[in-house]
Prior knowledge:
- It is built from 11 helices and 11 strands.
- It is an alpha/beta fold.
- The longest helix is centred in the N-terminal third of the chain and has 19 residues.
Amino acid sequence: xxxxxxxxxxxxxxxxxxxxxxxxxxxxxxxxxxxxxxxxxxxxxxxxxxxxxxxxxxxxxxxxxxxxxxxxxxxxxxxxxxxxxxxxxxxxxxxxxxxxxxxxxxxxxxxxxxxxxxxxxxxxxxxxxxxxxxxxxxxxxxxxxxxxxxxxxxxxxxxxxxxxxxxxxxxxxxxxxxxxxxxxxxxxxxxxxxxxxxxxxxxxxxxxxxxxxxxxxxxxxxxxxxxxxxxxxxxxxxxxxxxxxxxxxxxxxxxxxxxxxxxxxxxxxxxxxxxxxxxxxxxxxxxxxxxxxxxxxxxxxxxxxxxxxxxxxxxxxxxxxxxxxxxxxxxxxx
Length: 334
């Protein structure tokens, strides 16, 4: 990025963006213009800054996309929201969904169509089109499947929606579950009592909850059984009513375990079932209950399915590259 002379209005080769607040523009650009560099890299547009004006050079469609991204991020700052690295990536993935119109006269972000999940500690927003589709599915359906690689936010978003439903009184409790070990839940071989055996496998669920509920309050809710974190084996024989239930790592369920879990759904409850069918750790020859559930239930009304890909990975950018490399090596292309 370079500093240019006073810029002229738009030309067929350039797009001119003027921002009212220099303070917000500094935040938009980021330290040492790192945010602009990230947008340049993703959109193949050169961004030159002069005062409170950004000039975009590149192909017309690329400039339109970059302008949409910049307006969306600036609108976020106008709303008093922080701008984190993940927000930059989110705006790059879905700029058109973050503002009303691509126009110099309408730089404000949209407020109608964007889903916001509020919890006690933080607000959660979709950072990719697939995440937006998943949030819609979680809000619109009693049973939802999230399928895709690690790092796409499946568990995090499901737990966020569960906490939001609990806070708003739509459900009386939250139940989070997953197969306790990769193949067979052989808890007897682990040292300690049952809680000590199970907790290491449940840690990702605890981590998500700690992001949304203050520690002391979370501890009390778990003690009072309003929030329950348990291995899949503990679901047998129960009817889960007025609860938001999340099953994580569902690719490691057997056919019988998945059927058992699905039939636990009771009145007033919702279920989110997440997994990555490329990471099945069941013994050779044992079919995945998640794969079979998708095949059998795909066309059943009232059940939502959202498929994520490497493009939706919201962790470190290197994670997306790793996922894509493994997909290429295995011949899978989403």
